[in-house]
Amino acid sequence: METQYYTLIEKQDFYEIIENKYGELAIFIDARDGAPDHPVLEFDGRQTALLKRDAHLAVRLDNINEETVAPLAESEFVMIVELKGKMVERVYGVPVDNVEQVVFEGKATRADELVKAKSREELLKQFGAVKVWASGDNK
Fold first, then answer.
1. Cα-flanking dihedrals φ and ψ of residue 100, to 5°?
2. Parallel/antiparallel/unpaired status of strands 113-117 and 107-110
3. Binning pLDDT at 50, 70 and 90, where does residue 73 land?
4. DSSP label at 119?
5. Is 18 left (phi over 0), alpha (psi -120 to 50) or beta?
């Protein structure tokens, strides 16, 4: 089992938002490793959305087409389609959470990726710490 002690926020440079004849939206993005766990899409009502795929990975969608803003803001759910090349890897529905502002916390590690460190408590819990020894000078 792989243990991650950080959260990644990856920028999706190119993506498509598709509307069907019933007004339902689907967002086509690159496939990520692993299945999503309780995903949600945060949307600021302007140009930015953040797909929180699971506790460790979020996908940032910038420069949302202005014609898509109203339909996306009015949607309760959208379909996420993850592609590997032209092949569909997985499809899942996510609720849309309209927020005042999408907040990105972290530091850039590459041009398209941010890393957000977990709190000390989160790290200790995930690590499974049973004892902690304070050491060094206590000044």
1. -65, -45
2. antiparallel
3. very high
4. P
5. beta
